[in-house]
Structure formats: C-alpha cells, structure tokens
Please model this.
Amino acid sequence: MRRYILRSSIVHKLIDDFIAMNQAGLVLELCEKYYDENVIMLNNGQIFAESMRESYDKQKGFVKSVKEFNVELVSKNIKGNIVELTFNYKMTGSDSTVNEFTGKHIQTWKNDKIIKEEYVSV
Model:
C-alpha cells in the first residue's frame, strides 16, 4: 500500500509538470522530457508519429509559427497508468491568425514516460 501511494504521488507530480509545460507552450521541451523514444502517437485515429524524434520534428515547424500560446486545462483524469487531459487551446500565429480548439490527450505512461498518446479533437 505504501509503495502505491508513493508511486501515485510521483505520477501526479509528472502529470502536473506536463500540464505546466504545455500551458507555457514548451511543446518541444515537453516532447523531449516526457515522450518515450519509441512513443506511438495518434491524431484523431491516424498515426502521427512512431517515435519521439518524429513527433519532435513534425511539431517543430508548428511551434515556430506560434507567437502566443494560451492553454487552459479543462479536465484531468488519472487511472493507473492511463491519463486523460483535456485542454482549451488558443494560439496566435506569427501572422496574427488566431486558432482556437479543444483537444483531449489520452496517454499511456510507463517508467515515467509516455509510451502512447492519442490526441482527439473535441
């Protein structure tokens, strides 16, 4: 019982850090810190990336085009090693275009890294 409580508190700390980094717009840093080298990432049911490096490279161009991130946590649900996070995103591009959307991240964690993540537009 004691070990489970300790492990649970570590998971919550990792998730809270993930959330803070996402809200700060530190997408690439978050990718390097929390995604397993062999992470499988899905975007609305389609394979987005099959490794941390592929995900990083695909997101790099997008992140460079964003001038301002405004990310609000809507919900957080943790059950064992499965984490569901829903965010409202509002991003302003370098051309002043505003893009607003809500997204749910369903993550599978193992050894303090995300081994699978499915992003779903809500």
